[in-house]
Amino acid sequence: MKYSYISHLECPKCRKEFSYKLVQQLCVCGSPLLVQYDLDNLTKDLTKEDLKKRTNTLWRYHELLPVVEEDNILTLKEGMTPLLPLKGIGEVLQLPSLLLKDEGLIPSGSFKARGAAVGVSKAKELGVKELAMPTNGNAGAAWSLYCAKAGIKAHIVMPLDAPDITRKEVSISGAALYLVNGLISDAGKITAKMVKDNDYYDASTLKEPYRIEGKKTMGYEIVEQLDWEVPDVILYPTGGGVGLIGIYKALLELQSLGWIDKQLPRLVAVQAEGCAPIVKAFNEGKEESEFWSNSTTKAFGINVPKALGDFLVLHGIYETNGCAVAVSEVEIEQAQKLTAEKEGLYICPEGAATIAAAKILRESNWLEEDETVVCLNTGVGIKYPETVEVTATYLDKESFTY
């Protein structure tokens, strides 16, 4: 039995095929490439019952991941994060089967560790020595740490106002950190020049095919944790949208394996009102988004004015009868506070956006009371200390009686 059943890379637009044995970036038509597997033969060799004996990391699904040789795997035991019932919030929203996939409990403190674990492992297998990428913070932090473990030099370009903690993660790992007074789109332009001038491996979102393979394992885990039943709805905070694309890809693969039925969850892309290109495109029935000028939101990870894979995000939404929702900064704040007060969970602003969106969709009856709804919390809240104002009573030690 093979360790990986990877067969080839394929362009979702022109269907051109590429070898996984060579470094590949975008298709000649400019589209991201997607990894394909020999699912027919895998169906004969693997059952979902086989997974019960395996380690609780994302590598339990190694046949459906792109690393061919086990020796090339770099792991910090990422994956199998908890799927938590939100009883308190469920009562407030009248959603008794509301669940949270909590990615805060993963190496580097965010779900970006999934993409980094698989992406860096494959880069190592391909012989990559140096890579470059733009980031809003968490991806750069995760890739820097995994690159340190792999012995790969990382060059990370980050907006100046990215969370300070993520800067420190990059810096302490030994990666080269570049700060730009601009947005992720500006960091992307600088990265492109670095790649061209220095022949670095371009690890930008969807410009290499393997980050998505790490992210898709969230979809496998959600279904496995629900005893191979799919939820009715999955809400995902959407910037570059790799996680949503990956979850949709995972669900299709599970269908092909015969491990789930034909009914897929409705996928919901959640964005902030200050940066909502996917929501605008969805509302207009378009297949691609337009660049969102002057974008801003405290949910920094979803401040992406134009995603390279926007057409894949929108395709996943349309094909599952899902939708796209924008939430306000106030609604994000309120949802973050509600989650801490009702559930004892300090989630990141991006994760809080999905709770806020669930509230909006429940009030409009798009979500029904008896449905199983999964919200994705993509990181731990303590990585964003500046987004929360402290409420306290200050005591004067001189006048206070002990």
What does this protein look like?
Helix 4 packs parallel to helix 5, helix 8 (217-225) crosses helix 9 and helix 12 packs across helix 13 (349-363). It is built from 13 helices and 13 strands. By secondary structure, it is α/β, with parallel strands linked by helices. The chain is globular. The longest helix is centred in the middle third of the chain and has 16 residues, at 242-257. The chain starts with 5 loop residues before the first strand and ends in a 25-residue tail after the last strand. The strands form three sheets. Strands 4-5-13-10-11-12 form a six-stranded mixed sheet, with helices on both faces. A four-stranded parallel sheet has the order 8-7-6-9, with helices on both faces. Strand 10, helix 9 and strand 11 form a beta-alpha-beta unit. The chain has a domain at 83-110 and 211-387: Rossmann fold. The protein has helices spanning 39-45, 87-93, 112-125, 138-150, 164-172, 184-198, 211-215, 217-225, 242-257, 277-283, 310-319, 329-343, 349-363, and strands at residues 6-10, 17-18, 34-37, 83-85, 98-102, 130-134, 153-159, 176-180, 201-202, 233-237, 266-272, 323-327, 373-377. 35% of the residues lie in helices and 15% in strands.
